Amino acid sequence: MARKVAGDLVLYLYAVTKSGIGDTPQVRGVDGEARIEAIPCAGLTCWISRVPAAEFGESFSQRLENLDWLAAVSVRHQRVIAAIAESRDTLPARLGTVFLSETSLEADIRKRKAALEADLRRIAGTQEWGVKVFASPQPAVLPARVRTGKEYLQAKSSLLRSRKPPVLDEGVKKFAHELEQLGIATAEGGRISGGTRDLQYQASVLLKRSDRAKLEKLLRRFSRAWKDTHKIECSGPWPPYSFVSHSAKSD
After folding, report:
1. 164, 163, 192, 165: which is closest to 176 by C-alpha?
2. Residue 57 CA: distances (Å) to CA of 66, 108, 158, 185, 224
3. What confidence tens digit (pLDDT) does each residue in 74-132 have?
């Protein structure tokens, strides 16, 4: 029979993997103290910590308003998931996913098992990479008749306001197409807006571990071709945060 959690503790879920525990990551839990546990759950493995209910229970949503606390918790959450994903295919859980007992955790996993197993098959042997393409900023051309510092600032402000969002040119479209062909799947990295200056393309790509060298080759080729016109930023590898289906996420 599944054990209950002591009344002052809740189960904090980091990730779900296939059955078979293997080595447990030697990192501290989301509270900075609890150890990481792997428990069998409906034929899969859940990676959890037993953390204080007073901090991660019903008051969790209120604590999110404390940005310092949220930043520390988010870093620990991601650090644990990254450690789990080093040696196994991993489905990350959302930040703040908690359960009152192993019984309620197993019931949730059992309800979502078909979706979880489908996602595990889809992400087998993969990693997530984040890719951004920026247009290199061109020097501002100010009017010739600028006589004072005030006029300079006014002219520069007017020039910035009149700038249009960057147009996705054919070179960036070609890069995006080749990246999509290389990966198993891609996910848009959010709406591109004026809030991120000169950003022309942003996506996450799900890539086979064995294709990492191909990704690096693609990035080098376009970086050389673009020289001073565009800049590529690539981050990763990450666990597949962007590729867990909605039905596989805990409510």
Report:
1. 192
2. 15, 17, 50, 35, 51
3. 999 999 999 999 889 999 999 999 999 999 999 999 999 999 999 999 999 999 999 99
Q: How far apart are CA 209 and CA 40, in angstroms?
A: 26
Q: Could you give phi then psi for residue 47, rounded to 5 degrees? A: -105, 120
Domain boundaries, the chain: 9-122, 126-243
Please tell me the distance from the alpha carbon of residue 85 to that of residue 6, in angstroms, as a whole number. Answer: 28
Q: How crowded is residue 53: how many other Cβ atoms within 10 Å of its Cβ? A: 18
At the top level of CATH, the class of 126-243 is: alpha beta
- Residue 121: burial class (beta carbons within 10 Å; 0-12, 13-18, 19+): exposed
Beta-carbon contacts of 90 under 8 Å, excluding residues fewer than 6 positions away, are: 15, 16, 17, 81, 84, 239, 240
Q: Residue 197 class from Cβ within 10 Å (0-12 exposed, 13-18 middle, 19+ buried)?
A: exposed
105 touches 41 (CB < 8 A): yes
Partner residues linked to 39 by β-bridges: 46
Tokens of 233: 């930023």
Residues of the chain with pLDDT under 70: 1-7, 21, 137-168, 189-196, 247-248, 251
Query: Encoding tokens for residue 132?
Result: 């951004």
